[in-house]
Specification:
Elements: E1 14-16, E2 23-27, E3 33-40, H1 45-61
Antiparallel strand pairs: 1-2, 2-3
Length: 68
């Protein structure tokens, strides 16, 4: 899968899980996206829990972010 990248949480613009993709995504400036391979669609309820946690963390740390 290649090398890993360290992305500062402060540069993340959004977290999302598009319905047509198998993996969740981090959205970076310029609409660049990075797949979150640890959150996969076939994990069903675990993926939902993980996304709920990621969204809560994002909302708590990005107070300038508007409602989804």
């Amino acid at each position: 899968l290649g090398n890993y990248r360290v992305i500062p949480w402060s540069v993340v613009v959004d977290v999302r899980f598009p319905s047509k993709l198998r993996f969740a995504q981090l959205v970076l400036p310029g609409e660049e996206t990075l797949a979150i391979y640890a959150v996969q669609r076939w994990d069903k309820e675990l993926a939902v829990e993980a996304m709920d946690g990621l969204r809560a963390l994002f909302d708590a740390t990005h107070t300038d972010h508007q409602d989804r």
